[in-house]
Amino acid sequence: MSKEEFKEIMRPSMGPVEAVREGFKAILPGLSLDKMAAEIGAELRQMGVHGAHEASAALFNGSGFVMYPRAGREQEALNKILEAPSIAPPTPAIELEKGGREM
């Protein structure tokens, strides 16, 4: 065995934190621990806000139900539906012309 081979074998292995980082890089190459921590923190803050709303609703209304606004594509679809021109209901005069039972 040569000295170079021996040095390669005796090279210190990576620690558990480094192994986790390498694993995340292999699975999700564009995601770093900093980005993950920021995303997790933002989600926890949002969940805290929702919990505060539910607690105050339960305290003042007697029910913990709170309707949260929709976000993303669902909101865009809802806006399209609400902005669409509505069809006017038929007038009673037109219905009388169609016939049917009289009162």
Provide an overview of this structure.
This protein has 103 residues and is an all-alpha fold. The protein has one domain. The protein is 64% helix and 0% strand. It is built from 5 helices and no strands. The longest helix has 29 residues. It is elongated. It starts with a helix and ends in a 5-residue tail after the last helix.
Strand composition percent = under 5%
Average pLDDT metric: 76
Radius of gyration: 31 Å
Written as H for each helix and E for each strand, in order along the chain, the element string is: HHHHH
Largest sheet: none
Briefly note the structural class of the backbone. mainly alpha
Number of domains: 1
Q: List the total number of helices.
A: 5
Helix content: 55-70%
Number of strands: 0
Distance from N terminus to C terminus (CA atoms, Å) equals 108 Å
Low-pLDDT ranges: none
Shape type: elongated
